[in-house]
Amino acid sequence: MNILKYKMDLKYKNVFYVILINLLFLVILLFSACGKTGFISKTEKSEYCGSCHVMQEEYVAWMHSGSHKQKVCVECHLPNDNRALHYFWKTIDGLKDLLIFHSGKIPERIKLSAHGIKVVQSNCIRCHENMVMMIYKNRKCWECHRRIMHIHTGIIGTI
């Protein structure tokens, strides 16, 4: 009888956590949509990304990146084929960055996650679709175009 009670308690505990996570996500979504005026549009700007001291080197490199400096960070680093996915991943990545920053576990060299690699590659192809139709798709764009990586551009490229 105790095992059955334990399983039921565990089931309700899991349901509670799922509900709690969903409520937290909803609060964040509502704050983002209805909170401080211009909050979402402010976070879409490259200046916002560069305002964090951890990203300043990447921001400076982006400013010296030729034609790509016409784009904002989210055009390359977030999914742009679906608005809901864009804001979903913006929330996930933003919370992850906030957690990493405030936990003090910032890596020496900032690297794209596996998901980030897929997103950036997809956005390269989306923007340069006409040019890449006949190219071998198993290579990442930045394997040949090294100067689009923030570490090989401008001031950082000389380090």
Quick overview:
By secondary structure, the protein is mainly alpha-helical. It has helices spanning 2-34, 39-43, 46-50, 56-63, 73-77, 83-103, 114-127, 129-132, 141-144, 154-157.
Total of helices: 10
Which ranges are low-confidence, i.e. pLDDT below 50, for 5 or more consecutive residues?
155-159
Terminal residue distance: 67 Å
Quickly count the domains: 2
Named CATH architecture of the largest domain? Orthogonal Bundle
What sort of overall outline do the alpha carbons produce when their principal axes are compared?
globular
- Secondary-structure element order, as H and E? HHHHHHHHHH
Number of strand segments: 0
Identify the CATH class of the largest domain.
Mainly Alpha
Radius of gyration, rounded? 20 Å
Proportion of beta-strand residues: under 5%
CATH topology of the largest domain: Multiheme cytochrome fold
Please state the oligomeric state of the protein chains shown.
Answer: single chain
For the biggest sheet, the summary is: none
Helix content: 55-70%
Q: What is the CATH superfamily label of the largest domain? A: Di-heme elbow motif domain
